[in-house]
Amino acid sequence: MTLPSTYADRNCSLARTLEVVGERWTLLIVRNAFYGVRRFGDFATQLKIPRAVLAGRLKFLVQEGVLTRDDGAAGGVEYRLTAKGVELWPVVRALMNWGDAFYSPSGVRRAVRHDEDGGLLDHEGRCETCGSVVPVPEIRVEPGPGFDPADSGLDPVSSAINTPRRLLEPITAP
Amino acid sequence: MTLPSTYADRNCSLARTLEVVGERWTLLIVRNAFYGVRRFGDFATQLKIPRAVLAGRLKFLVQEGVLTRDDGAAGGVEYRLTAKGVELWPVVRALMNWGDAFYSPSGVRRAVRHDEDGGLLDHEGRCETCGSVVPVPEIRVEPGPGFDPADSGLDPVSSAINTPRRLLEPITAP
DNA sequence: CATGCGAGTTCACTGACTGAACCACTGCTG
DNA sequence: CAGCAGTGGTTCAGTCAGTGAACTCGCATG
């Protein structure tokens, strides 16, 4: 858990990455940060993660330079992805693609589009309409055909992230 | 650990994927399978993973259809990636890319090439020489500029996987 | 001053991981 | 055919990390 090597293989960048984001909950926290979640309480309610674990993960991610911790405009604390954190998008996307392919028979659970022209993104993150590799802030996520509305979450945070929205745009308090 | 949801969010393919490959050690086992490791003992010695954990992970991955378990030609048991398992390559590659980018200042630890023409692969898996998206069995992995020979591993399995080789090609006993 | 809220911390409990030792089966080998 | 080594596990006690509920702290508001 602490910095000094949790995995032995010093020559493997996969192992090195997993030391940072490979623990339980960590990538879901990062995913929520992409979805615009910034507040401690919002992470906690949406993920139903024990607060002690959340506190530890957030501290570690800040220490690793994946998130920043600042006092937000509204007075509370805000956690946001750094540039290094945003670079985790291909990782998140690859994992989502695999889950959609093998565990979502009725189609992707969340569709990913280029917000400028509405084009779907392929597996490499390229817009099928304009052909460009879409930068993360221009990506829109919305429920796809495999999305199950019966399970869309009753808390306001889940409702917000299940509404079509751009990545990184902050979810707004009710 | 068992199948019934370890994460709450039923509408997230990321969570679903992490239920399969998100536990400690699991992706390193898969990585080794890409590198041609097939035998129980070889996984154990290269990863220095407790044998009980390895046994549990292998059983689970077989159950999930990521690996197959067969009696090999040489008489022992062989674990191999299924087509579904091979589809995890983009995940492994994305994680390695991020680790190389942020934790390997002197360059990638392992270079990934198209074995047919020697072209380097970009982040989307496309060959810079011939321009095609390279299928996994045609990918060659070799030590890159960030590779540290002082730490290249003394056991025969590590030596084998630190030698340039095609993915999925079985490592041969000494 | 009471109330409430956000952001954590504390704590007892449980479950998972660790490492070492042990077991079972196979195929030799003398 | 007894002994032995190799492979593929299982068992077990000790430790460590995750869980969930309750609690604390600081700050703003009424």
> What's the arrangement of strands in the largest beta sheet of chain A?
3-4-5
* Structural class based on helices, strands and sheet pairing of chain A: alpha+beta
The percentage of residues in β strands of chain A lies in 5-15%
Report on the biggest sheet of chain A: 3 strands, antiparallel
Summed over residues and divided by their number, the pLDDT of chain A gives a mean of 92
Which series of helices and strands of chain A comes N to C?
Answer: HHHHEEHHEEHE
Report the C-alpha radius of gyration of chain A, rounded. 17 Å
User: Which regions of chain A contain 5 or more consecutive residues with pLDDT less than 50?
Assistant: none
Helix content of chain A: 25-40%
Shape of chain A: globular
Count of discrete alpha- or pi-helical segments spanning 4 or more residues of chain A = 7
**How would you name the oligomeric state of the polypeptide chains in this document?**
homodimer
Give your account of this protein's structure.
2 copies of one chain form a homodimer. Chain A is of the alpha+beta class. Chain A is built from 7 helices and 5 strands, in the order H-H-H-H-E-E-H-H-E-E-H-E. In chain A, the strands form 2 sheets. Chain A has a 3-stranded antiparallel beta sheet with strand order 3-4-5, with no helix packed on it. The longest helix of chain A has 15 residues, at 89-103. The first copy, chain A, starts with 12 loop residues before the first helix and ends in an 8-residue tail after the last strand. The interface between A and B is large, with 56 and 56 residues. Chain A binds a DNA duplex (30 and 30 nucleotides) through helix 3 and helix 4.
